[in-house]
Amino acid sequence: MLNYTKILCAFEFDEHATTALLLASALAKESNATLYLLHIAKVPTADMDVPLPFDADPRWEHEARAKLGAIAAENLGSEVRYQIEVRSGLPAADIVRAADDLGADLIVMASHGRSGLAHFLMGSVTEHVIREASCPVLIIRPGLASSKKNPP
Question: Which end of the chain has fewer CB atoms surrounding its CB within 10 Å, N or C?
Fold first, then answer.
């Protein structure tokens, strides 16, 4: 039996994230854990290739919260306790920060599976989270969503 009490599922709005959510939900149900569904609304900063950095816009967070609420209602059902967390910032650092803030026992997230030049230029949120997280990280590979309809 798993002994997780708080599972953080980092959610980006793509098909891989839904697969990660379903797996996180199954783990939360099995261990009677609370599932935290987290989205980081990316905010450009001065070191990014944008003309001027700008502050977070509350509308981004509000829209993300509404989308996550609909996704949770569609995919989680009533058997899983969950909370929606939306923050503005930089995904790599803020996923780790949110896990620490919430006291997460496990982070579940999807990987985009970039390689080569795309990986070099864009970096990897997944790699940063794996290196910096103070709890275990479960990564869902691209392609798993199309090959499996139901999580284990």
Answer: N
